[in-house]
């Protein structure tokens, strides 16, 4: 399974859902990892640090969303990000489904699965 993390699009968001260390742990479990170029910069992680950890660094959001089976994000997805979801893909992020019913419906219509971290006890 290929796990990917895009650059967060929410203004002021400095966190990233995958660090070089977490990618190393995922790879030890047999998963491949991919990250959008620049996704870790605001959190202090360079593309070179990800590459050194064995992570595939791709140049664009489109390349990331196309390459990954599982997308891990910090913030809820935008409408444009939900539109990138495809059947069989999984999105793991905060989502707030009760406050984002239309977005949840849009995600469901793609055939993707969503794990809303805000709903995990």
Task: Give the CATH architecture.
Answer: 3-Layer(aba) Sandwich
How many strand segments?
6
Kindly state the percentage of residues in helix.
25-40%
Domains (count): 1
Order of helices and strands: EHEHEHEHEHE
Question: For the residues shown, what is the average pLDDT?
Answer: 97
Could you state the CATH homologous superfamily? NAD(P)-binding Rossmann-like Domain
Strand order of the largest sheet: 3-2-1-4-5-6
Please write out the topology.
Layout: E1 2-5, H1 20-28, E2 32-36, H2 47-52, E3 56-58, H3 61-67, E4 70-72, H4 79-84, E5 90-93, H5 101-109, E6 113-116
Parallel strand pairs: 1-2, 1-4, 2-3, 4-5, 5-6
Task: Write a short abstract of this structure.
The chain is α/β, with parallel strands linked by helices. It is built from 5 helices and 6 strands.
Task: Please describe what this structure looks like.
With 121 residues, the chain is an alpha/beta fold. The protein has one domain: NAD(P)-binding Rossmann-like Domain (Rossmann fold), CATH 3.40.50.720. It has helices at 20-28, 47-52, 61-67, 79-84, 101-109; strands at 2-5, 32-36, 56-58, 70-72, 90-93, 113-116. It has a six-stranded parallel beta sheet with strand order 3-2-1-4-5-6. The longest helix is centred in the first third of the chain and has 9 residues, at 20-28.
